[in-house]
Amino acid sequence: MTAIRLLCDRAPHTVESTLDAIEAHLMGAGASGPEALQMRLVAEEIVTNIARCAWPEGVAAQFFVELAIEIDVAGLHVTLTTIDNGVVFDPTTNATPDIDADLDDRAIGGLGMFLVREMTDTQHYQRIDGQNRFRVTRFMPRVHSVI
Question: Is the pLDDT of residue 11 over 90?
Answer without folding.
Answer: yes
